[in-house]
Amino acid sequence: MAGHSKWANIQHRKGRQDEKRGAAFSRVAKEITVAARMGGGDPAFNPRLRVAIDKAKAVNMPKDKIENAVKKGTGELEGVDYVEVRYEGYGIGGAAIMVDCVTDNKTRTVAEVRHAFNKYGGNMGTDGCVAFQFKHCGQMLFAPGTDEAALMDAAIEAGADDVVPQDDGSIEVLTPPNDFLTVKDALEAAGFKPEFADVTMRPEVEIELAGDDGARMQRLLDVLEDLDDVQAVYTNAAIDE
Hints:
The protein is α+β, with helices and mostly antiparallel strands. It has a domain at 6-74: Integrase, N-terminal zinc-binding domain (Arc Repressor Mutant, subunit A), CATH 1.10.10.200. 45% of the residues lie in helices and 23% in strands. It has helices spanning 6-19, 21-39, 47-58, 63-74, 106-119, 148-158, 180-189, 211-226; strands at residues 83-90, 96-103, 123-124, 134-142, 162-165, 171-175, 196-203, 207-209, 230-235, 237-239. A 4-stranded antiparallel sheet has the order 3-1-2-9. Strands 5-6-4-7 form a 4-stranded antiparallel sheet, sandwiched between helices. Helix 2 (21-39) packs antiparallel against helix 3, helix 2 runs parallel beside helix 4 and helix 6 crosses helix 7 (180-189).
């Protein structure tokens, strides 16, 4: 999700993931299973699977759990038949929200997502109502203090779309979705390790929210992210910390 300070926002997200390690394992395992089912079990030939495995390693998911999740996706082990679904809606001040889910029961999932929107001041919309406000892309965020000129040179050479310095001192590197891993590998080889890296839905224009509106929006986003079937929540709200 976006934020007035991208750096502070990423730290908030990482802190919540650390607090909920068990939920993170379940979420990543689902992503690995779906990725393996769609593109095969070899991460060398399945970029989405490799991204999912990288996420699993980032939360210290045990190797055997990663391997079992892959095998469930390829059919080597019996597993749940998951489907992907996206819900769209509006939060505080009309800010756009997209919620990506992986579920074995869409009836349950849509009811939980709708309840969260309604209870915490949002409104669930129709398919496509806010998707046009986001761009599908690879996104990497580098810590304040990173050498901007050197990172820009390395990113351009690696094939990045854009390098965006942020007001908080962090630096954002954007890539086409299919080139995300290639650029990330090249930057890491050049000595630039991102604090956050994922293929995401990035808002084209942000809506700033502060004070009570910002707090209410953050609460809505947190509640949505805590739902068992939710994989990711995207918003164009820039919440002033």
